[in-house]
Structures are given as C-alpha cells and as structure tokens.
Amino acid sequence: SFLDGDPDRPLVTGAVYNGTQTVPYTLPDEQTKSTIKTNTSPGGGGYNEIRFEDKKGSEELYVQAEKDMKLLVKNDRTKTVQHDETNTIKNNRTTTIQEGNESLTVSNGNRTIKVEKGNETHTVAGTRSVTVTKAETHTNSDSFKQEVTKDYTLKVSGNLTIDVTGSVTIKSASSITIKAGTSLTNEAGTSLTNKAGTSLTNEAQMSLTNKANMNIENNAVMQLTNKGGTMQTVDGGGMLVIKGGMVKIN
C-alpha cells in the first residue's frame, strides 16, 4: 500500500512473533518448515494453510483448505506422480467430461474395481466392445439375466458345455433348428418324449432304428403308417402280435 496512493511513498507493515503471537510450529524441532497460515474469522477455529517442509528426506508440500477448494485451469493440465497415489473421498465423487474422450491405461499390473456395499450401473448410448486376450470368468452368487431386443449370436471355436443342476427350457415363438455336421444324440435317463401338434417326422437317408429293451409303442388316433420302399421286416423274437378291427395282409 501507499500513502495517499503515491507510489513514491510506500507503506510497509510487519510483525514479529512474540509471547502472545507464537510461531505456528515449535522451534527448533520444526525449523525446516515454512508456512502461510491464515486463521478463519473469530470463532471459526480453523485455518487455511500452504506449508513447505524442506527437511532432507522428508520434503513435502502441504495444502489445507478449511472448507472448500476450487481449482480453475483455462487450458491443459498435466500431473505426474513418480510413485504411489492414494485418493480418499468420504462422500460423493463425480467426473464429467463435457466433450472429448477418456482413456485409462494400465501399462504393467492389475486393475481392481470393488463395490463393497451397493450397486454398479453401466449405461452406454452407442456400441460397447470388450476384448480379452486370455481366459475370462464370471461368477454370480445370485441370479443372472440378459435381455436382448434384437439378434443374439454366440460363436464358439472350440467346445460348448452347458451344465445345469435344475431344468432347461428352450422356447421359440416360431421355430427351433438343431443341426450337427456328423452326429446328434438325444439321451434321457428315464424318458424321452417327442410331441408335435400336427405331424412328427423321423427321416434318414440310409437307416432309422428305434430300439428298446422292453417295449416300443407307436400310437396314432387316426392312422399310423410304416412303409418300406423295397422291403420292410417286422420281427418278433418270441411273439409277434398284429391286431386290428380288420387286418389285411396283401
């Protein structure tokens, strides 16, 4: 400041520490500390501080905001941490990128995200791609549900195994096609039922075999036809029974 605003008449004021206004840190134990420390208004009981610790091996820059802290950078900001970094947030944290991209790179090491209590939600307005070079494991202690509005494609270059301890239901509003390049096997521990509302066809280019250790029953309400193009053999190892209201052989 200047007397009467005259730059040729500067006014310099100062004070030294005394018994009433003591130093902020004890001397000589903490003589390597330099600080700018301002107390809050009377009755506040707090302070803002910028402190420099210049002790060899313990160098530190300490900043305390008694309440809020705001940082404004009008262009680029670069931060380099040559060792560990720890961020502890007691309440909420929000990061907003108004325009541009976000990139996170872990060059050498692991990445862990842990939500100890609460939920996690991901919302992507565009497309999402996940590429895993090695194995991937998903473990759900509760239910797992996927809903796809349009098409769903699953492609496996090796084998596909589905192991269910309960029941399996596959339901389609139109049609279901199961196709195998070499062989297709349906096996049931107790019973296997094929049922069609209109017609059921079993067809083979060479041979078709139905085999049971006890009984095989083919039953139709209206008509049942077994036809052989060249030859058909009906063989009963012990007894063969052909029964009908009218039986015609040739």
Strands across the major sheet, in which order? 1-2-3
- Strand tally: 3
Mean pLDDT: 88
Number of distinct helices: 0
Radius of gyration from the CA trace?
42 Å
Give the class from helix and strand content and strand pairing. little secondary structure
Order of helices and strands: EEE
- Spatial shape: rod-shaped
Largest sheet: 3 strands, antiparallel
How far from one another are the termini?
129 Å
Give a brief rundown of this model:
The chain contains no helices and 3 strands. By secondary structure, it is largely without helices or strands.
Describe this structure in words.
There is one protein chain. The protein contains no helices and three strands. It has a three-stranded antiparallel sheet, with no helix packed on it. The protein has a domain at 3-64. By secondary structure, the chain is mostly loops. The mean pLDDT is 88.
